[in-house]
Amino acid sequence: MNIKGIIKAGMILLVLGFVLNIIGVATASDATEDIVDDIEEYNGSVGPNNALYGLKLAFENIDESFTWNATEKLGKKVSHSRLRISEAKTELKNKNNEAAEKAFEHYKEKVKETEESILEIPGNDSGILNAQKMFKEHQYVLEKLLESHPNNTGLLNAYNNSLELENKFELKTEIKIERIQTGEGKNILKEAKQESEKSVKENIRDEREKKTDEITQKKQEIKTEEKKTDDITQEKQEIKTEEKKKDDITQEKQEIKTKEKKKED
């Protein structure tokens, strides 16, 4: 590439960096060991419902493409995945399920890209281990969202995607990231030597089945509550019907008394 081309490429990168800074990207607050629901709701102006959302994603992808270092590129994919969850959280809060589904769909795409990226990085690279921890934290946030939105298909798919990615990380690094709770009630990450590939797949399957059972139970509880509400509504309606019958009877009696009085007169 000649000098003119290098200068031109540099100017493009500066412009992209400026634009990305305006429309919002995920912050560096991923790098914490305490697992809390620390993915804040997206408060930028270019969310999934915005007409410029596609352009925003395009800028993110270009930014990744111009990142030549594989570890740094992986870090950006992790941050952009985090941003998709942040956007989805906002949309779920605002009950914009269609927009949330859109964010989760792009999260799925970013997870797939991440799976491809980790193939280019040695398993003992500190960057890939850090990315593995970050996705474990993201997985925790998705779990918490599922508790309050068990019927959201996009959210469930996103959670399952994170489990599959966890499998890929463990096979690559030969390290399992476990989530444990301390005596103070904090959830922290702990590294453990991974077992065989068969054990990894079995663990992922067991985790998925466990979460599916929990979601099924949650849905059943919601249905039970809805049935109770319907029963109460029906009882109220029956009470109103009985009261109306009593009123009708009282009115009929009054009419009979009125007629009898007229006859006596």
How would you portray this structure in words?
By secondary structure, the protein is mainly alpha-helical. α3 packs parallel to α5. It has a three-stranded antiparallel beta sheet with strand order 1-3-2. It is elongated and about 110 Å long. The chain has one domain (3-194). The model is unreliable at 13-32 (pLDDT under 50). It is built from seven helices and three strands, in the order αβαααααββα.
Pick out the low-confidence regions: 13-32
What is the count of β-strands?
3
Q: Structurally, how many domains make up the residues?
A: 1
Which oligomeric form is depicted?
Answer: single chain
Give the strand order, joined by hyphens, for the main sheet: 1-3-2
Class from secondary-structure proportions: mainly alpha
- Head-to-tail CA distance between termini: 117 Å
Determine the number of helices (DSSP H or I, runs of at least 4 residues). 7
What is the CA-atom radius of gyration, in angstroms?
Answer: 29 Å
Beta-sheet strand percentage?
A: 5-15%
SSE string, helix = H, strand = E?
HEHHHHHEEH
